[in-house]
Design goal:
Blueprint lengths: L25 H6 L1 H14 L6 H14 L3 E5 L2 H11 L7 E5 L5 H8 L3 E5 L10 H7 L4 E4 L11 H11 L2 E4 L8 E2 L2 E2 L6 E5 L13 E5 L2 H10 L4 E2 L2 E2 L20 H11 L2 H19 L5 E3 L17 E5 L2 H10 L29 H9 E4 L7 H16 L4
Parallel strand pairs: 2-3, 2-4, 4-5, 5-8
Antiparallel strand pairs: 1-9, 6-7, 8-9, 10-11, 12-13, 13-14
Length: about 400
């Protein structure tokens, strides 16, 4: 019997008095539901729900989109980072230089892979790791550097690779937010040994739960990652670690991607470029409304973009005065926001043993005080952007609603 899936229930769009959620993809799902339903029905009919043919089909589609030689589907962007670090050769106790301003998974992945995170400050105009700070952080225990591509732009990969080459370091990319971002035609995650993608629901390409992928052009890294995601197995047996002298048996885990997530992602991937363009339109509208407004320090569109690179807006991040006061006002008006990030990683309690102090990495600390993410997703209406901007203008002009 063929599987059938009901269409998502239609909901009435609320009007002027409704709130503006930080993220909502209900309209997207209604619009492309026939495609999603078709892929999901194939999974249900096949009866293999994890690590099956739909995952393999999505991996091939992702390779075509990114140009990667290998895309390895896994259960989350975080596990993709851990597998990438291990597959790229991280050894217990090795140091990995990471930016202090990023999601905590960047650093905890290093810990889970057996390494030690070393934090570096970010660039003056942008969000990426500062190559000069990377150079200053290198010790005789440094093995890798992990730049992070954040919000709407790539890290300075030319500068990072220059430092890495000078010190013999492996470059791995936390490109979890960077699907669609390219430098000189090369997709994010393929500018070093490998990178990752996250398909957390709010991401530019989002699943309906957790999912991720590892990207690489390195055959040995890809093969090792495939074994690590499946309890170290190649086929149905434990396998030797490729590319390493005196190979040992890999002790992997269970990091496989679910086929229903792959089905949703395969359907949404066909609409990704249109979604990226829609995000760009909304981001430009924000920029045009907020640029030069007293209290708004910087809008994303005014930050420099390096030659050959493109912007893909995952998060519209403004830098503002009175960030917490503005966030509270917007919340009171029913407008969702997010703080990226409340505290830099070098000052997080879980890394207190590393000995960092306030003031050590001032650019990251300052961005954590001023950055606020505004609603941005393809289903967002231009009128909703204007409502958000109107409320921001009222806040900084001192006017009541």
């Amino acid at each position: 019997m063929k599987s059938t899936l009901a269409s998502p229930a239609s909901t009435e769009r609320s009007g002027e008095n409704s709130g503006v959620p930080f993220f909502d993809q209900s309209e997207t799902f209604r619009r492309i539901w026939p495609e999603i339903r078709g892929h999901c029905s194939r999974v249900l009919d096949d009866g293999k729900f994890s690590h099956g043919s739909m995952v393999a089909e999505f991996e091939r589609a992702l390779e075509r989109y990114t140009g990667a030689r290998h895309a390895v589907g896994v259960n989350s962007g975080t596990d993709a980072l851990v597998l990438l670090l291990r597959a790229a050769g991280l050894r217990p106790g090795d140091e990995v230089i990471v930016p202090a301003h990023t999601f905590v998974a960047t650093a905890t992945a290093v810990v889970h892979a057996g390494g030690v995170p070393v934090f570096a400050d970010i660039e003056e105009h942008g969000y990426g790791i500062d190559p000069d700070a990377v150079a200053a952080a290198v010790t005789d225990r440094t093995r890798m550097v992990m730049p992070v591509h954040l919000f709407d732009r790539l890290a300075d990969m030319v500068g990072v690779r220059r430092v890495a080459d000078a010190h013999g370091l492996t470059v791995v990319e936390d490109s979890a937010e960077a699907i669609g971002m390219r430098s000189g035609g090369t997709h994010a995650g393929l500018l070093g040994t490998g990178g990752v993608l996250s398909f957390f629901p709010a991401k530019t390409l989002g699943a309906v739960g957790d999912a991720g992928a590892l990207l690489t052009d390195d055959d040995a890294v890809a093969e090792t990652a495939r074994m690590l995601r499946h309890h170290g197995r190649s086929g149905r047996t434990l396998a030797a670690f490729p590319g390493i002298s005196n190979p040992t048996v890999v002790t992997g885990g269970n990091s496989k991607m679910d086929d229903l997530q792959a089905a949703v992602l395969l359907a949404k991937l066909a609409h990704l470029d249109a979604d990226i363009e829609r995000r760009a339109v909304l981001s430009r509208r924000y920029d045009d409304r907020l640029r030069g407004l007293p209290g708004v320090r910087a809008v994303p569109g005014d930050l420099p973009v390096r030659p050959g690179e493109n912007r893909v807006v995952y998060v519209h991040l403004v830098q503002v005065d009175d960030r917490d006061g503005l966030a509270a006002r917007l919340a009171a008006a029913g407008i969702g926001t997010e703080v990226y990030y409340p505290r830099p990683l070098h000052l997080q309690p879980c890394f207190a043993h590393l000995g960092y102090r306030p003031g050590d990495l001032p650019r990251a600390e300052e961005l954590c005080r001023t950055a606020l993410a505004l609603p941005l997703y393809p289903d967002l209406a231009e009128e909703a952007v204007d409502r958000v901007c109107d409320e921001i203008e009222r806040h900084y002009s001192g006017r009541s609603r």
